[in-house]
Amino acid sequence: MTAEEAEAMAAFTRMSHLLDRQFALPGIPFRFGLDGIIGLIPVVGDVVTGAMGMYALKIASDHKLPWHVRWRILWNLGVDVVIGAIPLVGDIFDFAHHAHAKNRRLLERHIAKRAGR
């Protein structure tokens, strides 16, 4: 992994943690982040966190990852935004889906795979 890739991944890791896993409450068996909280604002919240998640796509494009990685990132974000916009069901979904953490793992896996070649 180049220094540039490591710096981009570190920034995205911090952001994905904040959006998906920053908080824990006693008695709640999972961690959640700002994505779930901001997602409580109808439609706008999901659009805002989806736009923030586009940073993963920028990293994938900047580092010329394969098209299927970029498509998977868009899929994860699209599912998060579309289902998250559904009243009540979408709010519950936002707290559990963790699209940004999924995209972080996806980027890490493919950048490491490419570095191993």
Automatic annotation (TrEMBL):
Alphabetic keyword roster: Membrane, Transmembrane, Transmembrane helix
Domain of life: Bacteria
Residues passing through the membrane, by range: 37-57, 69-89
Cited Pfam families: DUF4112
Name of protein: DUF4112 domain-containing protein
Species: Hyphomonas neptunium (strain ATCC 15444)
